[in-house]
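QUALITY CONTROL LOG
STEP: pairwise intake check
CHECKER ROLE: data steward
CRITERIA: each record must contain a sequence immediately followed by its structure tokens, with no blank fields

ENTRY 1 OF 2
RESULT FIELD BELOW
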Amino acid sequence: MAMPVSAARVCRLAGRTVSSLSAGHRRAVNLPARTCFISTSTASSLQFRLDERTAHSSLDLFKKDTGVIYRMMGLDPSQVQDDPERFRDWAVVFGDKKISSGRHYWEVTVKKSQEFRLGVAEAAMSRDDCVGTNSSSWVFGYAQRKWFAMTSNKIVPVTLVGKPDRVGILLDYEGAFLGLVDVEQPRIIHTLRGQFKAPLCPAFGLWDGELLTHSGLEEPEGLM
């Protein structure tokens, strides 16, 4: 029997679209029997922590601000330090680094969570919005035992076998895409196009369980 969807969850389930990877700032190189695309972005090892100033009152940071846990009851908003950077309505937290160029890779370990979002958002994104619901954020999410890609409140299903304990995120700023990476293969599972014109931050939404971030990593070999 289908369960009703509450108004507070519409943000995470509404809309559908299909997106594809644009050639954008990559040039095609013709090789026998195939075409390869080479990114013009410079790779670098992005090191970041989660920014407590942005964390919604239902989220607690741990492990030197590299992990986040969802507290069902959360804290009384009046007991949380007032900060214009803090998300007010949605369980979202940003990373503390702003990205304006280059190609960056990080990984996330998922623990006991059945609903979360991973991706990037403009640093100046409204703190009244949820990541994925506007044109300022690009995320991969997991809910109702299914993966999806989301931006501008539009969702496209992502085909993925099972729910891995750890996934990678690849951001190519000049290449204008965000990739969800299978860390076991490694390979890019799905890509989201972006029109990146402003500084971006790693972004995370969490509605149960825990997420642990792993930054400062080199991009795995073999990714496009």
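ENTRY 2 OF 2
RESULT FIELD BELOW
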Amino acid sequence: MPLHHVAVYVSDVKKSREFYDPVLAACGYVVSFAYDELVYYAPASNPHAAEFGLTLADPSKPIGSTHVAFGASSPSEVAEWYQVAIKSGGKDNGAPGIRKEYHKGYYGAFVHDPDGHNIEFVHIDVSCEAAT
């Protein structure tokens, strides 16, 4: 199962970007998309890849919480992996479905692992991406 993207929780996105923007640019990454509470970076050769992200931490939770997403080849694979995760002790954090709030063609499911980390399974329909 390939790794899709990783998000690191931070206390101040703007301050963190002051470090990550130039460091990741030197590594060949560009900002894929950014909002006040998050920013994602991708290889310049594939700016929609959004492999590494910074997300504003919930102040009521420890920053140690992590989000890891695994790429799936289809929505049915997302649903299958989600069911396996739930049956293996994962706690539901978002059943399989379209996530229009992220972007077109984004189909994902979320579970918390036994330590509370947010594990995601995601399939992106690239034909929807091309239409934007």
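INTAKE CHECK: passed for both entries
DESCRIPTIVE NOTE, ENTRY 2: The helical segments are 13-26, 75-87, 126-130.
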